[in-house]
Design brief:
The chain has 159 residues and is of the alpha+beta class. The protein has helices spanning 7-17, 35-45, 68-71, 73-82; strands at 2-3, 60-62, 65-66, 87-93, 103-107, 115-123, 126-131, 136-140, 148-158. Strand 5 and strand 6 (115-123) form a beta hairpin. The longest helix is centred in the N-terminal third of the chain and has 11 residues, at 7-17.
């Protein structure tokens, strides 16, 4: 069964916590970065349901009990595109076709994708994002240096 993704709640959460940390979640800055942890929190706020599968799931219990997809850019990408797991799922989209609440992942070096962002608003064709690691509230996407950007359109939540 598919549940609708609540973009408004996801973006509201992103704006609420963009410049600080929710004390219910560990802050991973300094040990690999907090960007994907923050994005996972936003997806959860948008109606995400955790999948507690040890290897393929998407979940957070505490700092030592979490899935790789909760905090890793590449593992979150794989989880969202899988579409067979409980929780949020996505399809790859061009940046121009994304909506508020969708996710953008950046390759800031030629080796791998290393940053996750959530679209917080689109105004006059300009995309603004919220993010952690380098905390950002409604930062223009164009202000980020990157080699490649991948858009992930959140289609819904598998229950």
């Amino acid at each position: 069964m598919i549940k609708e993704y609540d973009r408004e709640k996801a973006v509201g959460y992103a704006r609420r916590w963009a410049m600080s940390q929710n004390p219910d979640f560990y802050h991973f800055a300094g040990i690999g970065g907090d960007c994907t942890n923050f994005i996972s929190q936003c997806l959860l706020a948008g109606g995400g349901i955790m999948d507690y599968d040890l290897y393929y799931g998407w979940y957070y219990i505490d700092v030592t009990h979490r899935s790789p997809s909760w905090t890793s850019v590449e593992f979150l990408n794989r989880f969202l595109l899988d579409k067979s797991r409980i929780g949020p799922f996505a399809s790859i989209s061009t940046i121009e076709n994304l909506e508020e609440g969708d996710i953008i992942q950046l390759r800031q070096n030629p080796i791998r994708f290393n940053h996750s962002l959530i679209i917080s608003k689109i105004e006059n064709g300009q995309i603004y994002v919220c993010a952690h690691s380098q905390n950002a509230l409604d930062r223009p996407l164009e202000s980020y240096p990157y080699f490649e950007a991948v858009g992930l359109h959140i289609e819904g939540i598998l229950t």
